[in-house]
Specification:
alpha/beta, Rossmann fold, Alpha-Beta Plaits, 2 domains, 6-stranded mixed sheet, 14 strands, elongated
């Protein structure tokens, strides 16, 4: 299957500043893909090239199998910018209708499609015909997300989609994004809110100094080379667990927590089998996980080395 976004050797400079220094990236079709990195890492520049706003100085980039500058490709892309600007005199319905016309949506479906998108993002229907000039940041953000969703795009590019949204609103926006992915839309997300990215995305890439330094399936990147095992407390359980390779971590009221080094599932299975045969009772086995902040820190240090 063709990648939704593909780049090789992508470079871009602004005068003496090298913003992007050879980005190799492949965003699988149907993924919810998060792009993270420190300020100045090249995220915004990459998004501008992805959207055909800025031309690369070298390398290649394709979007939905075609050129990022192709009008027919761009019509299949929904975009929510970080700094959304809506004419203050426009109502949400009028703003979405203008976006729909640019995308080439049939006039007969503009109203119904606009209403569908506004309902999807949870904007109160009483505000649909009001001027956005008096809207809160959160209401404007919902309007912008609805505009990005209009026309059921194949690729949704979201730059800080939950910025200015209250906690309950963030849950709703995450649900909207999840529904889009479930329907087959590829989502490309840029956010400095790592906890939000971790809840939304299934793939991530870390940019550092204009290059991709880490990329992959988030669940795999989060895995440490160890597992946590909880055994019930019993007579001699500590000695038995240690004999089978489990390092004691902490005691709880009715159980002890142990750490098993290594990611090899067969080695863990053998150790558990030995412990069970010796009479221990397993309560829980879970992989040790890193959070996205740790992944970012480690990747950034690797990129600076």
């Amino acid at each position: 299957m063709t990648a939704a976004v593909f780049s090789r050797g992508l470079i871009k400079s602004f005068g003496a500043v090298k913003a992007v220094r050879g980005i190799d990236l492949e965003v699988p079709t149907g993924a919810c893909f998060g792009l993270i990195g420190e300020n100045g890492a090249g995220k915004t520049t990459f998004i501008k090239m992805l959207l055909g706003i800025t031309r690369p100085d070298g390398g290649e980039i394709t979007v939905l199998g075609g050129s990022a500058e192709d009008v027919s490709v761009r019509a299949q892309v929904g975009y929510l910018p970080e700094r959304l600007s809506i004419p203050e005199a426009f109502s949400p319905l009028r703003f979405l209708a203008s976006v729909g016309r640019i995308k080439g949506l049939p006039r007969a479906t503009l109203d119904s499609e606009s209403e569908r998108a506004l309902e999807l993002v949870g904007l109160d229907s009483g505000a649909w015909k009001r001027s956005t000039g008096g809207f809160s940041k959160g209401m404007k953000q919902r309007t912008g997300l609805a505009a990005a969703l209009i026309g059921k795009p194949k690729l949704l590019v979201l730059d800080e989609p939950t910025d200015g949204i209250d906690p309950m609103g963030r849950v709703q926006i995450r649900d909207v994004i999840a529904s889009a992915v479930a329907a087959g839309t590829t989502v490309f997300l840029n956010s400095h809110l790592l906890a939000e990215t971790e809840k939304i995305c299934d793939h991530v890439a870390v940019l550092s100094q204009g290059r991709v330094v880490t990329v992959g399936v988030l669940d795999v990147l989060k895995r440490k080379d160890a597992s946590r095992v909880r055994f019930e407390k019993s007579e001699g359980d500590l000695k038995v667990a240690l004999e089978h390779g489990f390092a004691h971590v902490e005691d709880r009221e009715d159980a002890r927590i142990y750490r098993f080094e290594g990611r090899d599932a067969s080695a863990l299975s053998r150790a558990l089998g030995g412990a069970l045969a010796a009479g221990l009772v397993v309560v829980e086995v879970t992989p040790e996980l890193k959070d996205l902040e740790t992944i970012l820190k480690e990747a950034t240090l690797k990129g600076a080395a």
